Amino acid sequence: MQQALKRYDAALLRAVGGKLFKPRSQWPVDELIARSLAAINNVAVVDRRLRESEQASRRLLAVIGHSRQPRWRVGNLVEALQMLGEDDGVRPILDLLHAGLLYPELPAGASRLRDFKQWLAHAGTAAPVVFAHPAVTARAVGEKLGLPALIADHGSLVAREADGLEWPLRIAVLWQRVKDVPLRRTQQGDFFKRDWERLTADGLLNAPLADGFAELPDLPWLLASLAEIEGALRSAETELQEASLPSSWQEGLLPALESLWAALPWLDGWGPQHGRRIGPDAGSANPYPSAYLLSLLLLSQLPDGAWAEPAAIAKWIEERHPYWNTKPQALAVGAISPSRETTGPSANSGLDVFLLGVAHQLRLVEVGNAADGQCLVRLTAVGRWLLGIGDPPPLPQGFPQTLLVQPNLEIVAYRQGLTPGLIADLSQLAAWKSLGPACTLQLQPETVYGALQSGQTFETIRQTLERHAVRELPAAVIDSLRTWSNKRERIAVYPSGTLFEFATPEDLNEALARRLPLTRLADRWAVAAGDSQIDFRHFRLTGTRDYALPPERCVEVGEDGVTLSVDLARSDLLVESELQRFAELAGGTNLNGRRQYRLTPTSLTAARDSGVTVRALDDWFMQRAGQPLSAAGRLLLTGGLLPAAEARRQLVLHVPTPDFADGLLQWPGTRGLILARLGPTALAIAEENVEALRKVLQTFGVGISG
Amino acid sequence: MDKARIPVKLHRRVCLVQTEDAVLAEELLARKKLAQDIVGRLTDRVLLVRPGRSDAVIQELQSMGHTPSVVASP
Q: How far apart are the C-alpha atoms of A270 and A281, rounded to whole Å?
C-alpha cells in the first residue's frame, strides 16, 4: 500500500488523503502517506469512511473480503458488481480509489499516477489490477449483498463433506512428477504435446476424485494451474519446474484450504466448462473468478439446513454475468470491460461442475443426494469460515499414528490421519503410488536421496516415519534408509565452491578457530559452498581466481624455451594439473613467488603418448604464456617423429660480404655450382666444382684462396 | 576487526568432488567417462573438475549408483 501511494502524483495523493483522513494542514508527501497508513489501520476511521461510502462501494469491498484475496482484476470486480445489480460497475471502483480504500497495482517503471480514470483507460493490454487492505475489507464483510436465497425444497438429506485433502494430495503427486521431469511450455502457454500426453496418461493424476460428484475436464491442467499459483511449481523460462510445497500446508488443514481458496480468483488456466484455457486473453477474459465467488455467496444466503440446486445457482449467475448474458451492459472504461462469451450465446457456465467438483473437494460445500438422484449443495462450516461469515470450525483431531511402514518399503497412509503437512513431508521422501481411503507410497533410493538433498537427514526421515507410524519401523526399512544416507555421505560435490588456499597449516587452523564456515580438505586447503556466507574481513587476499572466467596468463617461457615459470599469485589450480601432463617440476623450488617446470624429452614423450598434440600445446601456451610452443619444445615433442638427421662433410666457401654470396647464388654462371647457403657469407660447394668455380670467378678478377 | 588478517589465495567457483576415502577417489578416476572431466587431484580424496562440467559429473556419479551430496550455497 505504501509503495502504491508513493507512486501517486502529489496532487492526487492530497486529494485521496483529504477524503481518507481529512488532514488539517498542508503536510508533506511522506507525512501524508504515513497518516494514510495509520488511518487504514484505525478501525473507527475505516468504519466512518465506509458509512460515508455508497452501498455499491461497500458491497464491492465486502465481496473482496469474502474472497480472502486482496488482489483482483478490475474487470472481475465490474462483473461482480453487475451481478449484484449495479449497471455501472466502474463508478464504485473509482469512488473507492478516490476514497483511499482501494489501490491500483502499478507496473514497475510507470510514471506517477495523476488520474485513476486515465489509468483505467490506458492500462494497455494488461488487465488492470486493484487491491484492498484486509483491515478495510474485514470491516466491510457483513454488508448485505442483496442476493436471493435459492432454496431447493427436498426435505432432509444426508450431507457428505469432503476431507479437503484431495487437492493437496494431487498437487503433491504432480509436484513429484514435475520434480522428475519438468513440463515444457510452448510460446502459446500450452504444454509440449509429449508432456501433456504424459500428464493425461498418468493414472494417479487422473484417478476419479475421492467422494466425487462431478468429473472435472483436463484435471492435470487444473492441478498445474493451482500448483503454480500456490508456488509448488514455478515457471523458469519455457519450463514449469518444481519449487517448494506451500508452507501453509505445515500450518494445518484450514490454512492450506484458505490458501487454495484465495488462489481461485487467479486461476486463469482452467475453467469448469471447457477445461484448460490457453491464450493471451485467458486472464483478461476469464469470467470465472467473479462467478466462483458469487456462486458461493449465493449459498451463503441459504438459511440453516437448507440446500440449493447447483444448476439453479449456475442459472442465476448465467442470467446476470455479462460473459454469458448477452443483454447489453453499461460499458466499462478502456481495457477493463468485463469478459464476454464470444463464441455464441452458450449459457452453460459449468458452475455446477465447479460446485460439485472443485468447491466440494475444497471442503467449501457439502453435497446431499435427493431422492431423485439430484445432488444438492450448501456451505460447510469450513466454507462459511472461508467466506468470513463463520468462526473457524473445530476440525476433528486426526490420528497422529496413521502410517503403516512395511518391510518391503511400502507405506500405507490412512487418509483420516493425513494432514497437508504430513502430505508435504511424505512427498519429500517417498513416491505416491495410489490415492484413496488408504494411500500408498514407496520409499525408493531416489526419493530418499531427494529428501536428503533438500536438507533432511537420516534422523529426520526416521523421526517423521516413527512419529506417524502405527507400529515400530521394520529393521529392513531403517537399514535401507541408513544405507542410502551413508552412501550419499561418501561423496560430496561442490559445483561452485570457494576454495581457500592458505600459506601455512597454522593459517587454516586460525581461520577455523574463528568459526568461519569452512570445511577442511587438507592441511592448507579448505572449502566453502560459496562465498556469500564468508566474512572476508578476516582475510587478506593474496590472489583471487574465478574459474568461470577464461584462463589467465600466468606462465613465462625462459630463453631456453623449456623452462616454464608459473606466477603463483596469478596461477590457478588447473594450470599445475595441466603442466604435469607435459612438464616436470624443476626441483620444487619457489623463486620470488614462482614455481618452475621444465619441458624434458621424457615429459614431452609421455605427453605425446597420452595424446597431447602440437596444436593442443600451442593453444595451451597461447592461453597461459601468450606465445606458441617454443622451438625447443616443438623439437622435443615432434623431433622423434621426423626423418633421421644426416651428418656429412662439406666444403665451405666463405665470401667477404652477404651481397657477394647473393650474387653467386643469383648469377646463372655460378648458381649451378653452389650446393646450399649455410649463412650470410657461407656457401656449401661440392669438391668437384671448386675448379670450375675458380675459373668462372677469374673471368672477372676474383680469386679463391685455399 | 582487531585480529590479524589471514593471508589466503581464493579460488572462486571451483567444482570439486570430495570422497570418503582415497580408494573411492581412485575408483572414480578409473571410470573413463568421469576421468575426462577430472583435471587434477588436489589431495588423495579431493578431485578437481573441469569448469562447467559439474552437472555432467553429478549425472555420471549417479549413473554409477552413487548418491552424491551436492553442497551448494543457499
A: 12
Place of cell 568421469: B34
**Which chain A residues have a beta carbon less than 8 Å from that of B42?**
499, 521-522, 525, 573
Closest to A395 (Cα-Cα) out of A405, A409, A380, A408? A380
**Mean pLDDT for the stretch of residues A275-280:** 75
- Identify the DSSP state of A378: E
Q: Are strands A491-502 and B69-70 parallel, antiparallel or unpaired?
A: parallel
Please judge whether A576 and B40 are an interchain contact, meaning their C-beta atoms are less than 8 angstroms apart: yes
| Cα–chain center distance at A148 | 45
Model confidence pTM above 0.80? no
Residues 469-528 of A with CB under 8 A from B: 484, 487-503, 507, 510-511, 514, 521-522, 525, 527-528
Q: How far apart are CA A136 and CA A96, in angstroms?
A: 11
C-alpha cell at A549: 572466467
Please tell me what DSSP assigns to residue A644. Answer: P
Q: Where are the alpha helices (DSSP H) in A41-150?
A: 43-52, 55-67, 74-83, 90-99, 116-121, 134-140
Pick the closest to residue A546 from A565, A528, A572 (CA basis).
A572
- pLDDT mean across residues, chain A: 87
pLDDT for A150 equals 87
Alpha-carbon span A674 to A60, nearest angstrom: 109
**A42: alpha, beta or left? (left if phi > 0; alpha if psi -120 to 50):** beta
A577 and B48 within 8 Å at the Cβ level: the answer is yes
Q: Residue B68: which of A488, A501, A580 has the nearest Cβ?
A: A488
Q: What is the pLDDT of residues B2-45, one digit of tens each?
A: 578 999 999 999 999 999 999 999 999 999 999 989 988 888 99
